[in-house]
Amino acid sequence: MRAIKRVLAVMVAAATLMSVSACGQSQADAASAQQESAAAAKKQQEKDKAAKEAAVEEEAAEAAKEKAAEEKKAAEKKSQEQSKAAEKAIKDAQKGTALAALAKLAVKGRAPKTGYSRDQFGPAWSDVDHNGCDTRNDILKRDLKSVTYKAGTHNCTILTGTLNDPYTATAIHFQRGQKTSTKVQIDHVVALSDAWQKGAQNLSGDQRKQLANDPYNLLAVDGSSNMSKSDGDAATWLPRNKGFRCQYVARQIGVKTKYSLWVTSAEKSAMSRVLSSCPSQKVPSGGGASVIPTGNSQQTRTKAQTKSKSTTRTRTQTKTRARTKTQQKTTRRTPVRTKAKTQTKTRTKAKTQPKKKTYSTSGSSTYYKNCTAVRAAGKAPIYKGQPGYSYKLDRDRDGVGCEN
């Protein structure tokens, strides 16, 4: 009986253990299933969130695209309106205005730049008016205020001055020097490269030299603005100072009229848009008439050249008489003894000057014997660091050689 009871107790215990084990396994399976369900739910949430974000981004991109299209459409509409206004302004232009002069300019495509070089326009800053000063210093003297001059240059070489810059509407202090001279530069209102591609190829060498040194086409301006302009026309560059744009474009028209240069269609549109805001703007004084005709008539060209030479000769003779009178006055005031001392010093200086060749300090093999050679190569003024520069060419050691 006892044995039976023991067997039954063992069987009950085993059944209990099996039940407990099965219950534990069931609980473990339930926990695992619960974890898997939570992970799946989290993954689905992340997927839904990503889809929602993608939808938002897509909507934003679509909205940006629509906005860009609307802005483009508005810009095109504005451009069309400006073009119509510009065309109307040209059509309604009053006689004597820059718009009327623009209407007379030929419209052609830009010619190839083939063959262009600065040398095609003669030596840089030539003394074309024969006043003893190079063109660069003439323009600085004209456009700067409160100027001071380098001693012994007959008031030619500008040392300091103040420029009221038309391109930026700021005051710029000019001081001659290697690191400071470039703050104020001389800009060709109609860039020489632009002129070459729009008719200057057909001009004679003398005409191109005159164009490059014509005060009418030159302005002293902010150096960085001149560099950013490069050889751009009105379609690609305009002064930052909007208050000067009408005058700037009118001067370009005057220069192109004066030298029989043409404009491109885009350039004409840009010019007319600017001038439509100032329809009464006139071409600056002195513009509008060809200096030397460039037509096929050799007879007309010869007459114009003769007249130009005659005018130049008359001016030169007048200046020569004025210089002679000044020299005569100076001679009366200067004692003979001083002349003798000056001549002695000059001879002594000439004898003591070294005869050996001075080579470039720029690290280049380029060599110029003197400033005459520099000007003949079209490289004057020559700056320190440029090929061929040497202290022999820069007596005052200011970093700018052959400036006179």
How would you characterize this protein structure?
The protein is mostly helical and 404 residues long. Among the domains are: 98-294, no CATH class; 354-401, no CATH class. The protein has helices at 2-91, 98-104, 135-143, 192-196, 205-213, 223-229, 245-258, 265-275, 298-333, 336-352, 371-376, and strands at 144-149, 158-165, 170-175, 184-188, 218-222, 382-383, 400-401. Strand 2 and strand 3 (170-175) form a beta hairpin. Helix 1 (2-91) packs across helix 8 and helix 2 (98-104) packs parallel to helix 7 (245-258). The longest helix has 90 residues, at 2-91. 25% of the residues are buried. Residues 287-312 and 329-359 have low confidence and may be disordered.
Radius of gyration: 40 Å
Q: Give the terminus-to-terminus CA distance.
A: 141 Å
- Biggest sheet layout: 3 strands, antiparallel
- Could you give the order of the helices and strands? HHHEEEEHHEHHHHHHEE
* Spans of at least 5 consecutive residues with low confidence: 287-312, 329-359
Q: Percent of residues in helical segments?
A: 40-55%
Sheet-strand content, in percent, reads 5-15%
Strand order of the largest sheet: 1-2-3
Structural class based on helices, strands and sheet pairing: mainly alpha
In one word, what is the shape? Answer: elongated
Task: Look at the structure and give the mean pLDDT.
Answer: 81
Number of helices: 11
Number of strands: 7
